[in-house]
Amino acid sequence: MGAAVTGRTGIVDAHHHVWDLSVRDQDWIEGPELAPLRRNFTVEELAREARAAGVARTVLVQTVTVAEETPEFLALAESDELIGAVVGWTDLTRPDVADELARLRELPGGRHLRGVRHQVQGEPDPRWLLREDVRRGLAAVAEAGLVYDLVVLPHQLPACARAAERHPGLTFVLDHLGKPPIGTGEREPWATDVRALAALPNTVCKLSGMVTEADPRSWGAGGLVPYGDTVLEAFGPGRLMFGSDWPVCTLVASYAEVVDIADQLTEKLDEGEREEIFSGTATRVYGL
């Protein structure tokens, strides 16, 4: 599968992770279902999979809310040409967040910092993004010329839309379609809420993370179509970008299969529109 099926080259993978358990634990990897992820995943392993699937550049995204991870990722991006950008983490609620973002950009590889992400999906407050201290942090991210990646659950989408409305100068990137309940086949209220977010011009969405939201026992590309079609119609190709979510995707599908699924979900589009999803949007948004 992969490049052998899609025939694509120059793909940008806008969302992947790496980790080394000898450096730090990934404490979110718990239980038997996630057990296959409890090993090291390196850029070297990713590169073999990605290049075989026609991927030329990637965006490395934070995994844990640990300050030391982002400098490590920046140094990794500086040392490996495959990684074109880093979405890191910093505490948005700290009063000196603007200074911290400036410090990160002065580190080795700091030029690769293009975005910030926080695990909002783990916050008990569904309106966390609207807190005054968080809003100050988001304003600092915008001032720094960075984007903000949203990793949220469906019930948090209304707050995402409100935050995007309050910060028109900041680009908000929705990871994994906002994690719709693909496994149950339900689409509401997720579809309505994701359309409301997409109605704001400073929002973008990643066509990523779908296979792990589906039922692992019975998933198939056909079951993903209604969700893919929803974001295609809502955001349009110019605000949609492909992401593998490797290695999390490997719980269900190989890297090549994920690329092929994205190709199937966009097969009704013309070649220019597909080019946007597979490289153009990410190139613009993350300044590759």
Count of helical segments? 10
The Cα radius of gyration reads 18 Å
The backbone outline, from C-alpha atoms, is: globular
Q: What's the pLDDT, averaged over the residues?
A: 94
Which residues form runs of ≥5 with pLDDT under 50? 1-5
C-alpha termini separation: 26 Å
| Main sheet properties | 8 strands, parallel
Helix content: 25-40%
Q: Could you give the order of the helices and strands? A: HEHEHEHEHEHEHEHEHH
Number-wise, the strands total 8
Keywords:
288 residues; alpha/beta; 8-stranded parallel beta sheet
List the helices and strands and how they pair.
Layout: H1 3-6, E1 11-16, H2 43-52, E2 55-61, H3 69-79, E3 83-88, H4 97-106, E4 113-118, H5 132-143, E5 147-150, H6 157-166, E6 172-174, H7 190-198, E7 203-207, H8 221-235, E8 240-242, H9 255-265, H10 271-285
Parallel strand pairs: 1-2, 2-3, 3-4, 4-5, 5-6, 6-7, 7-8
Helix pairs in contact: 6-7, 7-8
Structure summary:
The protein has about 290 residues and is α/β, with parallel strands linked by helices.
How does this model look, in words?
This protein has 288 residues and is α/β, with parallel strands linked by helices. It is built from ten helices and eight strands. The protein has helices at residues 3-6, 43-52, 69-79, 97-106, 132-143, 157-166, 190-198, 221-235, 255-265, 271-285, and strands at residues 11-16, 55-61, 83-88, 113-118, 147-150, 172-174, 203-207, 240-242. Helix 6 packs parallel to helix 7. It starts with a helix and ends with a helix. Residues 1-5 have low confidence and may be disordered.
